[in-house]
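Re: the 420-residue chain
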Amino acid sequence: MKITTFNSFKSRNYRLYFSGQSVSLIGTWMQRTAVYWLVFDQTHSNFMLGLVVFATQFPSFLFSPLGGVISDRYNRYRVTLATQTCSMIQAAILSIVVLFTHYSIWEIFLLSVVMGVVNAFDLPARQSLVNEVVDDERNLQNAIALNSSMGKLAWLIGPAISGIILEKLGAGTCFLINAFSYLAVITSLLLMRITPYVPQPHTKKIMKEFKEGFNYLKNTPSLGKIVIMLACVSLLVLPFNTLLPVYAKVIFHGTASTYGYLNSAIGLGALVGAILLASLKPGANLKKLLFINLVILSIALLIFSHITNFSIALCTASLAGFAMMSQTTICNTIIQTEASIEMRGRALSFFAMAFFGMQPLGGLLTGTISQYIGAPYTILAQSIAAIIIAALFFSFLFSKKKKGKHALDEENLQTQLSNN
């Protein structure tokens, strides 16, 4: 049997992209773990924990539409290079503030907001860039799945390392390591041989292009409903990981390492799921997989919510990670492979709004509710929400395609452009 899991590595540019991002994402997860633990350790507040998640991710909700337009208008390679450089500067400033000043918690919040703004422009450009660094379009779905595997591997390694460093050297060291990790991705970008960018004339205003992107998804239910479903899951289910520091410190009476292990368990499950997705044959029914994994996520959260045995908690956390990974990776794959090239960046910006925009709102909601009913019952409610969402989108996820891969999207695009 021919192995297709790593087909995308035939492309030199993609190998560079993958290796640079792998190092950088480990640093990113180290910083994320350290920020959340630092806030909870200093405030002992579930609400403040939800608030820092909100501060970190909500700017992506506000600015992702603009980021999508920028990705479609300008050189995605240059935009990605710029955003990665800005991310490195943010991490360096954060490390200096924590290591060398008597900082307040609000300075951490402010720098978290800055990172959220940068991510709003980074995600659409960086995700769309995959289409340009993969030589063979037939390997695009494989490349997207491998990207997810890369992110999940970083999710496995980063928090575990961060937990140990938090105990031994403190949060500032985690931030400093993240700053240096960006050198890997910047170097990989500079070493790529990218086809020279040919500027295209843009006679339309940015807001008009944003409106076109919105109407494109509205008139393309196969993509629009995917974004809506992801938004619901991101708001009501995925923010369960907001409460992991509470479980680590209060329920399991652990330390920063305990928190790191919980995060890494989720990353391990997500990595396994991403590798399985990368191994899928072209033409696999991704929508049915979305439904199945949403049910699995509900079951995992149901068990995790009231568990008191740490070993069993790690196993259920891994199962939850396996299931939650599909919600983003499959949605991303469907959008990238089915959206027309003229709208891909804007479609991905709405994907970012649904994922990165709804999660901070959900994190704030999760933190607030858990202040009143406790972390276990909050996660139990998220388990129930997952089942309800699966039921609401059942008919859509199991519906049969009536047209070819791009036919309906192209028709809707032409209709949309003609109406404008």
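Residues 23 and 172 are 19 Å apart (CA to CA).
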